[in-house]
Amino acid sequence: MEKEFKLNDKVVMKKPHACGSNLWLIIRNGVDIKLRCLNCNREVMIDRLEFKKKLKGVIDEKV
Known about the structure:
This protein is mainly β.
């Protein structure tokens, strides 16, 4: 089953960023996905297929 994600979702990636964190915020959703690291605020853009391969999960904050 494909993981559902949308703009402003917090996601966990399989491999950590260089700063050591693997938590990201989706800030652009389209053909490319733009992510902001929640630890160091660095922004990266990767294509959707690569993002889906590297995605570990979406953090559900509905409480």
